[in-house]
Amino acid sequence: MFKQTNSNLKKYFYIWQFFIALCLVSVSSVAQALPRCLWVSSYHPGYEWQDGISRGIHYVLDGKCELKTFHMDTKTNQTKQHIAKKAAQARELISHYQPDVVIVSDDNVSKYLVAPYYKNTSIPFVFCGVNWSAHSYGYPFENTTGILEVAPVTPLMKAVKEILPNNQGRLLFLAANTNTAHKNAKFYKRHFAYNQYQMDVKYVKDSQAWKKAFLQAQEYDLILLLNNSGIASWDKREMMDFVKANNTSLTISFNRWMAPYSMLVFTKIAEEQGEWAAKMALEILNGDEVNTIPIISNQTWNEYINLDLFKAAGIVPPQALLEKAVSVR
């Protein structure tokens, strides 16, 4: 009786082992069945714009593909040697990972990776965060599509004219000395000219140079603050106090994180860039030819107003703007 029972136990044990192995094989097969997606970013985690793109990409793609990420970190390290090294590492990752589709965010990945190495190859690429124009890097290729990043200049300038109806139309563009800033300057100058504004440009490398330029900028009607990322030794509290104590001109920006230093901010939405790029990637994974998916640009923006800075500068915003914009500090 005992021998028979022991034999049955062994039998059930082997059946149970087989069942577990079958389940593991099934789970493994499902995991392997997911398509491979790769996201190559120009910047680094913790940078607010990139983090927003990340949220958009993950919102759409999580559970739909195996998503791997590579950051080139070209905002904090802008040397040619670093960029070349990161581009080479990204190429090696693409070669080994063999993704079914690659999402690339912001200008530097397109400039240093896609354009020189993957033009019209068999690997489909979807870009996002490319400022203003896709033609800068030769796009569109046969294997690329994406979403452009276009600043809401016209609606912002409409608000500016309501705030300062009699200004002289002089604007200073103050920015870090980066590739993106130089590209933006060209397009901003053109768009502001459409709105009867003459735009001068000042690039700086550190916070002390920024302060000096900001004081000189007080002779302008408008100061456009592009970004503080890429400016060395930036201290948020110190710079907030400096701007509040020394500014009399209308300060504007297109980046949400510049609201502590800007009276009026009309922002592009990073999540929109990430979501659209991810949706395009899904279309490609579902069988659509990449060159049949049209390149688009962002359609939405948010509006913010810093009342503390308005008050410190003695400028009164119109009631309509107060009712519409989100108040920030």
Order of helices and strands: HEHEHEHEEHEHEHEHEEHEEHHE
Quote the distance from N terminus to C terminus: 82 Å
Q: Approximately how much helix is present in the residues?
A: 40-55%
Strand % is 15-25%
* Uncertain ranges: 1-6, 21-31
Radius of gyration: 25 Å
CATH architecture field of the largest domain: 3-Layer(aba) Sandwich
- CATH class descriptor of the largest domain: Alpha Beta
Order of the strands making up the biggest sheet:
7-6-8-9-10-12-13
Instruction: State the shape.
Output: elongated
Our count of helices gives: 11
Based on helices, strands and strand pairing, what is the structural class? alpha/beta
CATH domain topology of the largest domain: Rossmann fold
Could you give me the name of the CATH homologous superfamily of the largest domain?
A: Response regulator
* Number of E-type strands: 13
In total, the number of domains comes to 2
Average predicted confidence as pLDDT: 91
| Largest β sheet strand count, sense and barrel closure | 7 strands, mixed
Task: Describe the 3D structure.
The chain is an alpha/beta fold. The protein folds into two domains: 34-150 and 269-297, Response regulator (Rossmann fold, 3-Layer(aba) Sandwich); 153-267 and 302-327, 3-Layer(aba) Sandwich (Rossmann fold), CATH 3.40.50.2300. It is 46% helix and 19% strand. A seven-stranded mixed beta sheet has the order 7-6-8-9-10-12-13, sandwiched between helices. It is elongated and about 60 Å long. Residues 1-6 and 21-31 have low confidence and may be disordered.
